[in-house]
Design brief:
Helix content is 38%, strand content 21%. By secondary structure, the protein is α+β, with helices and mostly antiparallel strands. The structure holds adenosine-5'-triphosphate (ATP) and magnesium ion.
Length: 419
């Protein structure tokens, strides 16, 4: 019996990798415009890093982490998200001392033990970005501007940007009390999880997906109505900047993120096209996180998008690439001459294919068709003696005599009927 992969851990097959490369390249290009540099952090970290940053009472830490003991007896975890690792690296390498503002981006696999379904996997991929060192609302707006431009560059008008403010340590406790009091009156209607979380993480009730909880929390007090002056000011400035740059957004006062480190501005890009997997990208400000992880008081804000979900939204777009030229050969001398020609054209940047199975001319031409090669040429003894052959444009069968030199053929296949 053959061995299969693990449930929720997917292969990315060649048919889809063109789409993924498009997503990654677009992100790199957009990030560069806003001054972001790439950081690559390990896939495994000490478990404590995630407990301390994401929070012990979050779904991620309570239920979703891949945690194991390594042979040395330390508890390690496959990273469930990127921000914690990036902040750990920022502190460890004192990047905050090299520059007061750090703009970093990352891409790579994340791991969460969830029930696999469309748009939800156990190994999934995120592209994310973080800015540290600036508490100014202008930075919040710039991150949101960048995210919305990124989705524009993907060619997506869905998903839509929703924003909220989660306040700060000065105003959240009073809000939390008001919410706990509201929930206490509706105990019976709440699911078991929400009841259990009331002492530890009552805000989670607001984004619980259980219908009973959605109904019971209608009319619940909202954080935006309990913001302190500074948070209120901050949030209105963010909205002013967004409006000034014509970034479309809506307010979602019920949005609470599943990670404890968020403060002030939080946001999601939400789609109606992926069922319960409605969040395509999400993020927010985390002004206390660096300090909480043992670093200096450096504010930060960031986001991450789910590559699988973006790929699902882009789904039907084709990123198929096709060869520029197929060299069909008859006989050993032609095979060698064809190999030489192929090497010279490849050096000039063309994608060239030739026979590698010793097939008949007819099957070689079938293969050229199957690969959707733009051009083909047949080399046999006659062509070698004459030093010339016939270049065929596959789309319309148009034929053109050419010298068997890389430079001539390169000129003929450049632009000539690019279809
Ligand atoms: P959800 O509410 O769908 O569980 P989340 O709030 O847990 O999402 P975040 O932790 O904010 O998600 O991660 C940011 C993005 O990563 C999400 O918007 C989503 O696109 C993607 N993502 C999160 N979990 C998964 C998963 N298990 N499989 C695929 N993509 C995921
Ligand atoms: Mg989740």
């Amino acid at each position: 019996m053959s061995i299969t992969g693990i449930k929720g851990f997917n292969d990315l097959l060649p048919a889809e990798s063109g789409l993924w490369q498009f997503i990654e390249q677009t992100a790199r290009q957009v990030f560069a415009r806003y001054g972001f540099n790439e950081i690559r952090v390990p896939i495994v970290e000490k478990t404590e890093l995630f407990c301390r940053s994401i929070g012990d009472t979050t779904d991620i830490v309570e239920k979703e982490m891949y945690t194991f003991m390594d042979k040395g007896g330390s508890s390690l975890t496959l990273r469930p998200e990127g921000t914690a690792s990036v902040m750990r690296a920022l502190i460890e390498h004192k990047l905050y001392a090299l520059d007061s503002i750090n703009k970093l981006y990352y891409m790579g696999p994340m791991f969460r033990h969830e029930r696999p379904q469309k748009g939800r996997y156990r190994q999934f991929h995120q592209i994310g970005a973080e800015v540290t060192g600036a508490a100014d609302p202008l930075i919040d707006a710039q991150v949101l501007l960048m995210v919305s431009r990124l989705f524009q560059e993907f060619g997506l008008t869905e998903p839509r940007l929703q924003i909220n403010s989660l306040g700060c340590p000065a105003c959240r406790p009073a809000y939390r009390q008001a919410l706990v009091a509201f929930l206490a009156e509706r105990q019976e209607a709440l699911c078991e999880d929400c009841r259990r979380r009331q002492g530890t993480n009552p805000l989670r009730a607001l984004d619980c997906k259980v219908p009973g909880c959605i109904e019971a929390t209608q009319g619940a007090p909202a954080m935006v109505e309990h913001l302190c002056n500074e948070c209120d000011q901050h949030f209105s400035m963010v909205q002013n900047y967004l409006t000034a740059a014509e970034v479309l957004f809506s307010l979602n006062p019920r949005m609470v993120r599943g990670l404890d480190y968020y403060t002030r501005t939080t946001f999601e890009l939400v789609t109606g096209l992926l069922g319960a997997q409605s969040a395509v990208a999400a993020g927010g400000r985390y002004d206390g996180l660096v300090e909480q992880l043992g670093g200096p008081a450096v504010p930060g804000i960031g986001f991450a998008l789910g590559v699988e979900r973006v790929a699902l939204l882009l789904g039907d777009r084709s990123f198929e690439k096709t060869p520029d030229l197929f060299i069909a050969v008859m006989g050993d001398a032609a095979r060698t001459a064809g190999f030489r020609l192929m090497a010279a054209l490849q050096d000039q940047g063309f994608w060239v294919e030739t026979d590698c199975e010793g097939k008949s001319l007819k099957s070689q031409m079938r293969r050229a068709d199957k690969l959707k090669s733009r051009y083909s040429i047949v080399l046999g003894d006659t062509e070698l003696v004459a030093g010339s052959g016939t270049l065929k444009r596959m789309a319309d069968g148009n034929q053109q005599p050419v010298h068997l030199e890389a430079a001539t053929i390169a000129a003929a296949i450049t632009g000539g009927g690019q279809t």
